[in-house]
Amino acid sequence: MHKIVSAEFLAPDIKRFRIEAPKIAAKRKAGQFVIIRINENGERIPLTIADSDVNEGTITIIVQGIGYTTKELNELNTGDFISDVVGPLGQPSHIENFGTAVSIGGGVGTAIAYPTAVALKEAGNYTVSIIGGRTKEFIILEDEMRKVCDEVFITTDDGSYGKHGFVTDKLKELIETRKIDFVLAIGPIPMMKAVAEVTREKGIKTVVSLNPVMVDGTGMCGGCRATVDNKTVFVCVDGPEFDAHKVDFETLTRRNKTYLMQEKESLNAHQCKSMSIEENLIVP
Predict the structure, then answer these.
(1) Domain total of the chain
(2) Entry pTM
(3) Phi, psi of 22, deg, nearest 5
(4) CB-based burial of residue 228 (10 Å sphere; 0-12 exposed, 13-18 middle, 19+ buried)?
(5) Residue 262 has pLDDT above 70, yes or no
(6) Is 271 helix (H, G, I), strand (E, B) or coil?
(7) 9 and 115 share a domain?
(8) Positions of E strands within 90-204
(9) Do 120 and 176 share a domain, yes or no?
(10) Helix (H) or strand (E) holding 46
(11) Same domain, 209 and 129
(12) Quick one: DSSP state of residue 244?
């Protein structure tokens, strides 16, 4: 059992947890993830390790409640316990001094980009961050990024904060005005694909972090298959980071929709159960 040391919402349906996991905290590296199971009957879900504190023996995860299990996880609070936390899993981010490195996070993807941005700065890179969100309230980790990056730019789809537009708009501006040596893009598949298309024509090394259906985190189930450079890879053991210019985003999109109907049914059942519990609560 792993105790939740702290829990706070950063944005609507996006919650940050600090969890006791001393062995994982001591070993994890940027880009790696854990598999979490809330209780012994629960679903296993992969979550990137956003940060860790070796002295306190904790890891930080940031969760967006979009399905049954993530919404159930976001109902937990400080002092509650999580049944299983397994990791660190996956290959660490490849870190070197590229020169000028741009980290792009779309929505909760910023939580995944953050630890790699930290590592890139520690390696001597001039670090730039582009944080994107639908609206101002979905911009997360801005303060944290400003502490580790030389420059931070904000974009929102509706123009409510920062630059009105998409992360790719700001990326194009940067590419036109300076030399960019490396780009990391993490977020929704359409966003990562769009970034890859922008950097491909300029020959800029670009990496994306994939988040397909994943069960065991060891490659046995095969659920996390993706196509990279016309070859089948298992994201949980070969990734999660890959060369953006070699990822087959169309196949990835189709695979991510495989269990969409089952996920909706599970979520609806959870919401009905929650409503039933609320209706039966006795309020003094």
Answers:
(1) 2
(2) 0.85
(3) -60, -40
(4) buried
(5) no
(6) helix
(7) no
(8) 100-106, 126-133, 151-156, 163-164, 182-186
(9) yes
(10) strand 44-48
(11) yes
(12) G
